Fold this protein.
Amino acid sequence: TAQIIAGKVIPFAIIGFVETLAAMTLGCLWFGVPFRGEIFSLLAFAAIYMVSSLGIGIWASTIARSSQQVLFLIWFILIFFILLSGLFIPVENMPQWIQIFSSVNPLRWFMSALRGIFLKGLGFFDLLQEAFALMTIGVVVFVMAIIGFARRVA
């Protein structure tokens, strides 16, 4: 089970790191967004975020019965994750019940960390709340994914 999950996760994690570095380079060079933080902090948060998001993908694949259901389920979840991430509307301006609901959204914590690293020059230890939230979500979702996948294989 662990080897199958690693085989599913590692290629997408590599692609995710390449895309993260490409987006960072494009943002800095093309759009002129200043990068005031540390590259280590950015890559650490990207790794933690990828664990949680890839865990959600594996978990969805254990629930669905076909690849079409997985695509629809992930698309459905992703729409809400993007809308509740603070990308378009700051989380602080959302109603209280939506703020509570969005606290289980890994993209919310990753967006907050990216803003802190890029624009404010914060380091990893300055963003411990975001790191803890992302790690908690990642561990919970990945454990659920592993349990569901092990049941499905057995």
In short: The first helix runs from residue 2 to 29.
